[in-house]
Amino acid sequence: MLEVADEPTFAFEVDGATTADALVQSPWFARAVIDFCARRGKAQNEDGHLFARLATEAEASQYRTLADEFAEARDRFLIAHLAAPVSN
Q: Cα(33)–Cα(35) distance, rounded to whole angstroms?
């Protein structure tokens, strides 16, 4: 799980914490997150650093639901944007 501006924003699945940390610290990933946030006018983390954490069960469930939509592309890496639920 990756939080942006203290909100759970992106979910991805890797084989461990070391891999997750390496991913979020890679320059291409940081640029992609920065560009995504800039296009949507979303604030970044106060210190500008990206940190991965384990997803809650609810976040993991939401990720799995999104990942199932792309089940045929399992050989690819999926980063899911977890949009906040719309209130009625």
A: 5
Place of tokens 């390496």: 22
Identify the domain containing residue 41 by its residue range.
Answer: 2-81
Which of 19, 21, 14, 44 is closest to 32 using CA atoms? 44
36 belongs to a structural domain? yes
The Cα 20–Cα 31 span in angstroms is: 16
Q: How many other C-beta atoms can be found within 10 angstroms of the C-beta atom of residue 12?
A: 19
Looking at the chain, the number of H-run helices and the number of E-run strands are 3, 3
pTM over 0.85, yes/no: no
Give the pLDDT confidence of 25-61 residue by residue, as tens digits: 889 888 888 888 888 777 666 666 777 888 899 988 8
Average pLDDT value for the chain: 78
